[in-house]
Amino acid sequence: MKSEDYFAIAARDYHYLLCRGYDSAGSRDFVGNRYQLRGEQRSMLYRGIFSRDESNKRRLRLADAGEVTEKNLHIDAANVLFTIASYLDGRKVFIATDGLLRDAAEMHSKTPGVKSLQSASRQMLHSLAAMHPAALSFYLNEKMPALAVLCQEIERSMKGMMFPVEYESFPKPDLQMVKMQNGILATADSSLINRSSLPVFDLAAYVLKEKFSASFLDLSYLNA
């Protein structure tokens, strides 16, 4: 049996366990060991498969591109850019069971290069300029690789945008974003989404589909 076939079976078993309340880390280890999954496949389980209830709660929060028009968009810059850069680097990206695009990389050990992040920044900003939000707010992580490059790209793009653009770096930007009470949140960070009350826009997926006509493996079939 091919590795991909083992993953499909493992994904169903893992989802089954989560839907019955089993711990995600323990279930991942149990299923991963049983089917001898590779590191990338284990990451896909953990980052891409959630219980049916958890998935549906986040799906109900998703906004489409049309809803961004004339709204304040709060952008989790590192989360969005790392996902776009992973795709540009040829790494696995996929639609999780909650409908959000994620990558299979363990980002603490596979950080995108400066060139990939620079390219991701440009593509993101080009897409945002055409969406006509009321305002853009970028929340940057102080420890984000290529932070200076991103700031330069934002400064350059601000000159041609017909709406307010602001950015600021924080030690923990999620603590700032979770406080926002109006507008739309652009992120695929599960923890942040769960703590926020705002609708969620999958900016990374939008950019990749708009700029590269990208298609992705979609794990949402597990919720059927």
Poorly predicted runs: none
**CA-based gyration radius:** 18 Å
Beta strand count: 9
Topology as a string of helices (H) and strands (E): HHHHEHEHEEHEHEHEHEHE
Strand order of the largest sheet: 1-8-7-2-5-6
Percentage of residues in strands: 5-15%
Through-space gap between termini: 25 Å
Largest sheet: 6 strands, parallel
Describe it:
The structure is a single chain. The protein is of the alpha/beta class and 224 residues long. It contains eleven helices and nine strands. It has a six-stranded parallel beta sheet with strand order 1-8-7-2-5-6. It has a three-stranded mixed beta sheet with strand order 4-3-9, with helices on both faces. β3 and β4 form a beta hairpin. α2 (24-34) runs antiparallel to α3. The longest helix is centred in the first third of the chain and has 17 residues, at 3-19. The model has no long low-confidence stretch (mean pLDDT 92).
